[in-house]
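Our consortium's second objective concerns turning raw sequence data into structural hypotheses that experimental partners can test. To show how far this objective has progressed, the report includes one record in full. It was chosen at random from the queue rather than selected for favorable results. The single chain below, 901 residues long, was entered without modification.
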Amino acid sequence: MKSRHLLWYAGTALSMTLSLAPAVAQEAVQANEAAPDGDIVVTGSRIQRSGFDAPTPTTIVGEAELRQGNRPSIAQVLNDMPQFRATVTPTTTTGNTSSGVSTADLRGLGGVRTLTLLNGHRFTGSNDLNTVPQNLIKRVDVVTGGASAAWGSGAVAGVVNIILDDEMEGWRIGAQTGISSRSDAERYGADIAWGTNFAGDRGHFIIGADYLQEKGAFGRKDRRNLESGVFQRADGQLILANDVNYTILNRGGSILRLNATPYNLIFNPDGSVGPLPLGSETVGQFTVGGGGQNIYDYVAVTSPYERTNVYGRATFDVTDSLKLWVDGSYNRMTSDYAFFPETPVAVVMPDNAFLTQTARNQLAAAGIAGPFVLGRILDDVGPKKMLNFKFERRNLEGAIGLEGSFGDSWGYNAYYDHGELKSDQSLYNQRIAARFNRAIDAVLVNGAPVCRVNADASTANDDPACAPINLLGNGNISAAAVAYAFGGTQLIYTTKLDAAGGSLHGQPFSTWAGPVDIALGADFRWEELQTNFVDPLSLQKAFATLNSSATNGGFDVKEVFGEVNLPLLDIADTVHLEVNGAARYSDYSTSGGIWSWKTGGTLRLVNDVLLRAVYSRDIRSPSITEYFLARSTGIGNVQDPFVGAPQANVVSYTGGNPNLTPEISHTLTLGGSYSPHYVPGLSFSVDYYDIDIDNVITTVTVQDTLNQCYAANPNDPSCGGIITRRPNGGIESISATYRNLASYSTRGIDMEASYRFAVGQGRVTFRALANHIFELLIDDGVRTKDVAGVVGGDTAFSTPEWRLTGAMTYEDESFLADLRARYVDGGIYSTQVGPNGQQILNNQVGARTYVDLGLQFKTGPFTLFGNINNLFDVDPPYVVYTNPNYDVIGRYFSAGVKLRF
């Protein structure tokens, strides 16, 4: 009976924020009834004691949550929970060099503020949870509050601790496939795992592997609202509109005046000139509808990738009180796909070799007598027709450790981990700027096109290899011209992590209310970023869009920490009071020493009610990539407040900043849970949180960068040099590197209700989880903006005020059914203001509710399963590029088979 009470106590005490723990704990009780000494050890604290009432809220994600939706990575499983935001996933980093990555982001504060652990220690794969084989995951413990004192830097929003099933026995084999209702986003996967005892059951060994191929989705025209954008009317009023296209850029070539204003004429594939089919409304560089294109028409809806994982772990009981373990893993992620087209703007001279007589006559009839500017979308270059992004990310990791105990109540553990993430990425079909400029300036010599630099034998800049490029009409660029004027950049770099740590935990003495728990320890970490290769042309800055650059750097940190739990009052079945405190001192080679700490307490009343509070000071030192990341490139459209007009084809650069300083956060959590003993299986919980971060390290969107620059100094269109402009005043590029903003804060509330009961030979579970954000403030040093309820994807940290997930599950020995609803609140699209001083006219975004259905049929060792996500194919709201808040894939089917024996 004592063990049964402790198991329930552990689960409910730690199920404070949308926790699934009551159900998990109940399952554990049932499973351990035949083994009365079985305990649950949760990982919300360094103090490891079953039944410990942790003041920091902890959510347990169990087998049911891992199954629902049949998500392809653990990060995407977490994204279905209201506390998480899908900031970086294959559907939100599709036109970015982080393509295919999937990370955990608690509270929408950014993935770097969520510390992700594997079996309690840091690992290099934490930046992409595709590296973790899902068939070996037992559960995930989510600490939804500041936890730097216990676990170190990065735990500002909380900790995700992935617990592997390192005691599994037998075989697990599975295969699956999936496809959207639009016949894209195909997925194929297989996995296998095996576990066994050895050495007379003193040792245990597991190994698992999985393979997954995601084909990606590229059909934006098949999905409503994915070609939309912000359009500025002639009176300066901004509106959201579907199918916003360029007038100054076209896949055949848009003919422009020398000041880059459009004639609304384009080149046809045969080289003749025709009208640009305009849409319902046209102002300047954009038209709504019509026959034009937009850069986002070409960007994938979801990134394709191929994944391979292998993980092995062995444990051995050296003595009854000492266990040695060792593990190793291998992960490989690859992809090779069309990224987006380049969009050059070039001057065409009247004697251009590819101007046909028909075109000359048509231009003259339109009043175009001299040179003109051509705005071209290059979607007809090379095998994949556009910029071609290729990457291979390979992660190798190994760790060794020991766990032991001595005396009646003391335990210790230590580990060392080494990991190396090697990334090889290339961007092909790029313009080599100087060659491209020579090749597009072609003239006729003896009736044949020749580069102008070769037209006169006495020209000093002769380039015998130059092959003329015909930009006048789509599909006319020769293979020789592609070979001459286009090439690929390549960057290979390695990120290394060495982490070591040890801790001692035990009960040195008791008070009148029970034993006192303490934990002491030290952690050491070394991180390094090393460039292995940069292509020669990038070193010469030869490419027009992206030149790779060598980046090297590293840092180390030494830390000591302590934690204590002190019981103050214990009256059986009436009241139990404990207080908790922890502190950590971290010494960084880059920024020096810094403290983090927390204090809190729990009060249990008549066994059914738990109240708790915790206040913490948390830190986050800049990550290795924030310090030293090489420059990456994006491209898109912006609203330029300096000229009061939209700008197309703007290149943005992001990268590291060695001058960053650490973030400091303060978090207050107040909450409670109620689990009435007279209704077994029923539980409610509520937690309020308040997180304030100073000296925030982040990048902001290009649009927000522009707005901040204008607000700070409207007379400096270069914004201190981070904006590069063309001679006509248009924006050419914007530098948006990592930087320290003034502050960032969020307040919200988490709620959960769950109920489980038996029905015949089966059981039914109801569960509702919700998160409400009161405010999410970004103070960039110029102004403070509340983005809670701002839900457009191009607003930094855009977050719905309400998210709710409700699920009902029925399960018996041969059948299981999941019905889940995911509610995402609406709000306003953007706080963006047009030249008329007004926000977007149709700025309201409606809420969305997604219904998911899952079925399983079991017979012997076989389980057949099928899932439909977004059953009713709910459309997304207006989406300019992508949106981390709403489903952009639509209805998705998946099915597979599992075999266990």
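The partners drew two points from this record. Residues 623-659+702-707+714-735 form one domain. The two ends are 32 Å apart (CA to CA). Both points have been shared with the crystallography group to help prioritize constructs.
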